[in-house]
Amino acid sequence: MDAVLSSNVCIREGLTGFFEVLQKYDVPVVIISSNGLGGVSISLYLEKEKLVYKNIHIISNSYIWDDDGNAIGVKEPIIHVANKDETAIKKTPVYDLIKSRKNVILLGDSPDDIKMVSGFNYDNIIKVGFLNENQKNNLELYKKMFDIVILNDSGMDAVNNLLKDILK
Fold it and tell me: What's the pLDDT tens digit per position in 118-152?
């Protein structure tokens, strides 16, 4: 967890404002992550950045720890790229909050992330893809799969401006 709390890890520029606006309007934010560090790392980082809001829900892997602080297993269900969708959320408390929501802004950094809305009945969706690596080979794919493509680890300006327009 030292890596999470180090000063070398930083959030995407503009993410704080994004979270603050969604918190103000009580819009559920669901973070589905299959990262190797697990949900505790995300929670710790949000806490460090003072971004812990009641509308933010984290669905991620959780580890089983021994008495010496070593990870010795992963709690079920294991979140991976193939189940980052309704099946990963259905047995969590956040499911009841979002199952009837009809508008979605989906943020992802992998083409597989668009599957996160599979199983939900929504009317409107805006898909934002963050393409940070191998841009030359992946740009055309991202343009087909996402409505907005943000390159080079850029900030959240485009998303925040979209949110402002939606809220007008």
Answer: 888 999 999 999 998 899 999 999 999 999 999 98
Q: What is the pLDDT of residues 70-111, one digit of tens each?
A: 888 888 777 777 777 777 788 888 889 898 999 999 999 989
SS3 for 112-149, per residue? HHHHHHCCCCCCEEEEEEEECCCHHHHHHHHHHHCCEE
Domain parsing of the chain, residue ranges = 2-167
- Reduce the DSSP state of residue 8 to 3 states and report it: coil
Distance CA 21, CA 26 (A): 9
Q: Spell out the long-range contacts of 146-155 with Cβ–Cβ below 8 A and sequence spacing 24 or more.
A: 146/108, 146/114, 153/12, 154/13, 155/12, 155/13, 155/14, 155/15
Condensed to tens digits (0 to 9), the pLDDT of residues 11-26 reads 788 999 999 999 999 9
Pull the structure tokens for residue 166. Answer: 């939606």
- CATH code for residues 2-167: 3.40.50.1000
* Letter string b/e over residues 30-59, b meaning 16 or more CB atoms within 10 A of that residue's CB: bebbbeebbbbbbbebbeeeebeeebbbbb
